Amino acid sequence: MLVSADTTGIGIGAIAHEIGLTKDTLRVWERRYGFPQPLRSTGGERLYPQEQVTKLRLVKRLLDAGHRPSKVLPQSITRLQQLAEDSGVGQDAPDVELDRLVELLRVGRYDDFRFELLKRATREGLARFVLDAAAPLSARVGNAWAAGTLQVYHEHLFSEAMQVALCSLMRPLSEALRGRGAHPRVLLTTLPGEAHGLGILMAEAMFALVDCECIALGTQTPQQDIVDAVTAHDVEIVALSFSASMPVQAVVNGLTELRQMLPSKVAIWVGGSSPALRRKLPDGVLNVAGLAPIEDAVAKWRHSAML
Ligand code: B12
């Protein structure tokens, strides 16, 4: 094991959180595949230098896209970059208008960014804006962060502007729907540990567009609070979002626990790019694969509710 003379590098807890893995997984990879190969602080703690962090980010994205650890971990970073390019990981589809929006963010023209976003939302209407702008732009901003061309504070500014644009179109509709006896009644949130809230906001827009009553709790709601809100609002569907950043096991455990706590007549629908959702989910949890399929899933729910 290497010993670092100074203490440069990132600790195992911080790196596991950033990459969306458990500390155990990092230790197992180290033993099994010889990567990562952290330095050690004078106190014996693992420290990950920047180039290993960069490679780990890329490894995680390839695994999220379905590649296997045994095929990915032993490769050099150059080989992994090639693999990512060949399999389209982190590649944006060409779109000049979205590129322009990312550029406004990058150069710090935030007022222009907000204005352009709001203008596009108003011009296109809620459904088109969500599907053609909000969703692909989120992916683009994430890719730019991973490539090092945008900083975390850009992501924060992006999220604020996107929330304003989405809410300004959606909230009047949601409010008009309230009290009309619309079904299904859908509670939207994320579980503790999932701080990303744009996916569930976009899902709310799609539910509202097909006349569902939406009860939006924001992000990171503890399971017991979800159960209490379900009872208080007579909720029929709990909709949850999982980005790629939450460790797979935490997603599965969180969902299993919630499923056990909720009555079986309350459906749990999940969405988002977490690789956990491509695995076998607990019985009684439905993966709705994307935003456009919400319309169909609601139609099926209504059909079976009438039987
Ligand atoms: C904005 C953003 C942030 C903001 C979030 C602010 C907020 N209020 O939401 C901030 C700056 C706080 C942030 C922080 C972090 N982030 Co961030 N973030 C993003 C970004 C750009 C968008 C986030 C988002 O809401 N995504 C969720 C939705 C929009 O995307 P989706 O999961 O693909 O889901 C799609 C569909 O499946 C569907 N959908 C989603 N939910 C649901 C639900 C239902 C029911 C249905 C039907 C459909 C559906 O809608 C989406 C549209 O296509 C993404 C990039 C990306 N591609 O997502 C990175 C991203 C998620 N972040 C990432 C990371 C690493 C982090 C940080 C660890 C480090 C950092 N960048 O600062 C921290 C961790 C925070 C934490 N405590 O967990 C990584 C995760 C990668 C990984 N494999 O782990 C991403 C993917 C960026 C990247 N390319 O690497 N982030």
From TrEMBL:
Residues 12-66 form the HTH merR-type domain. One of its GO terms (molecular function) is metal ion binding. Gene3D superfamilies: 1.10.1660.10, Cobalamin-binding domain, Methionine synthase domain. Residues 183-307 form the B12-binding domain. One of its GO terms (biological process) is regulation of DNA-templated transcription. This is MerR family transcriptional regulator. It comes from Caballeronia mineralivorans PML1(12). The lineage of its organism: Bacteria, Pseudomonadati, Pseudomonadota, Betaproteobacteria, Burkholderiales.
